[in-house]
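To whoever is covering the structure queue this week,

Two jobs came back overnight. Logging them here so there's a record in the thread.

Job A:
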Amino acid sequence: MEQSESGVVDSADSDPKRRTLQVVFEIELSESGSCPLSNPESSVEAVHNQIDGEVCHADVTVADEGDSTQMLHTTTQVGDSCLCLAFGDVGCVPRFRRVDGETILIETYAGDRNDISELVARLKSVTDRVSLRRLTTRQQTDGATVESTTVDLSRLTAKQREAATIAVSEGYYQTPRQTSLEELSEALGISKSALSQRLSAVESKLATAAFDP
């Protein structure tokens, strides 16, 4: 038995698969959820957790006043809204990069873009909001790892990132399109014109970023 980086104990993979897509999500958890990260009282510095059956054990390092930190251990029941299970359902391992009072930055690796779409759909079912922050392709060339950032959404607002994430995951940019602007606007709870403006801003900013010297 091996323990993954997310702390989930699982059988050793006898057929390891190369992961070439590095993804960073910005996630907003529901305050009513059982996850210890749903509504932290202090700034979270690091998270290490392990799921044992239906129980999640987590060591959470939080910042005190000043520069000191303390370790808090939590034990919670694993439910359908468990964030780690959402990643595990699609064969991905979450790495917590930042946790504050409102959002969580989580890094993971995926095999292809279909994995990302499936993961986004799963995360949407257990979080208040999920948006893609960064997508990087990592390839091996002559024994060296080469990174080429294909999507960097750091220039976008949270609402623009949310709109872009849903549009991509629902197949809006596929040919032929798998969803309509009206369906996306209903999912986001905004008007078609507002969504159209957000996506236009997304496309403009990404095009500018792609061709910046």
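Job B:
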Amino acid sequence: MTADVVRLRPPLHRVSPRALWYWAARAAVLWIVLLAAQAIWWFADSDGARLSHLVVGAAWLVLAAAHLTVMPQWRYRVHRWEATDTAVYTQTGWLSQERRIAPISRVQTVDSERGPIEQLFKLANVTVTTASAAGPIKIDGLAAKDADQLVADLTTRVGQSTGDAT
């Protein structure tokens, strides 16, 4: 007797290529704050240990450059989504990766959000809420038009579902 084996495949759709720039811009803000703190520490230090400040500053710059180069590319390769007649399926993360599937019959709400930075990059985020203890499924970095279409499609599918959404 053989057991049926179900193998998950990655979801079909990638997020928008503009998400690469969005993720890099968000990370750059953090690195700018850290480098500014380093510069303030350097100018405020009266001990004259300039060499140690230069070494630490150089290390920060190397880490920042590596992070801003690698992270967006890595995330873009991992982040995927798919919505079928039966489920919403996502794959997210970069260091820690997660796959989530929510049956359409369990979907309670579908929301779209565009913050100021997302609007600048013409991106949107879609949140699919279920009764799951794991929380909502989020699809970040979609082109705004794709997010609008996904929300409309999911709203139609959920309305046609005979499930109880609990």
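Note for Job B: The helical segments are 18-44, 50-78, 116-120, 144-160.

Please reply-all if you pick these up so we don't duplicate work.
Q.
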